[in-house]
């Protein structure tokens, strides 16, 4: 970086991974938009995020 050039930042997800992520989020969106803030709701959200992560990482 001594020459003053900036390196291009790489993206965190590939276009395919973004598509999978968005489709999976849409499937579980109702869970994330619930207004409950209980332990059971938190576990349900955590499980939904884990299922989404499993799909993206598959």
TrEMBL record:
InterPro entries from the UniProt entry: Myb_DNA-bind_5 (IPR028002)
A Pfam family it matches: Myb_DNA-bind_5
Domain Myb/SANT-like DNA-binding, chain residue ranges per copy: 9-58
Annotated protein name in UniProt: Myb/SANT-like DNA-binding domain-containing protein
């Amino acid at each position: 970086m001594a020459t003053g050039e900036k390196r291009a930042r790489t993206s965190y997800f590939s276009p395919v991974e973004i598509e999978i992520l968005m489709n999976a989020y849409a499937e579980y969106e109702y869970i994330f938009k619930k207004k409950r803030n209980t332990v059971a709701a938190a576990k349900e959200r955590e499980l939904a995020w884990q299922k989404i992560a499993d799909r993206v990482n598959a």
